[in-house]
Amino acid sequence: MVEVIPQPDDAGPFAWSANGPRVTRCFTRRGTGASRAPYAGLNLGSRVEDNPAAVARNRATAAAALGLGEERVVYLHQVHGADVAVLDSVPDREPVADALVTTTPGLGLAVLAADCVPVLLADEITGVIGAAHVGRPGLVAGTVAAVVAAMRACGATAIDAAVGPAVCGACYEVPQQMHDEVVALVPEADAVSATGTPAVDIARGVLAQLRALGVPATQVLGCTRESDDLYSYRRDGRTGRHAGLIVLRFNSS
Ligand SMILES: [Zn+2]
To answer: Is ATP-binding one of the keywords (predicted)?
Structure first.
């Protein structure tokens, strides 16, 4: 059910991108962009104290690579919850939520991450798309189930998902009690760190949640903490954010 695709080594803004019959999905990489250290590269996060002008230029670059104007991509004010914003147009302000759903062609959806798991979902047949940001709290809160339910409420019947680069289990050490709380709810997230201490594997937990919901998934490999071409809060603390981006195209070609 899970297909693993290594990251291509190219010079574009994307670590991975895919064009389905109606939907384009991609995960950005750090690469080159307008931001300077400690955000250097294509930082798309607007809440990390980077220069707003640099972030705006980077967001324009990412949107253009998707074939969209920058004003057509919706970002979120992410709060590690399970709320889903269902949109049919660009809102006046960034929704406070961790997932987005739309059926509107030409409306790009973005989720930001720097170790957490970006998830891009689509039903290519009915034309329902979604994006979710899932960290440890979201894994426990049920963000994946919430976005899938919202998509199904919009008419989706055959969703598949792309799970983006995230911190791997070996790099995500947590206190024993935290480990136990997560694993009690999502046993598949059980992991051991590189030094043999308790850890959690959020991406593996997300994949298990998708599988339980009947949603086939593709995992894009790449540990954020181990790859200099991805942003990692665990590695760097003060740093930027890469993104998962998805859009339902106007035509079906
Ligand atoms: Zn790792």
So the answer is: no
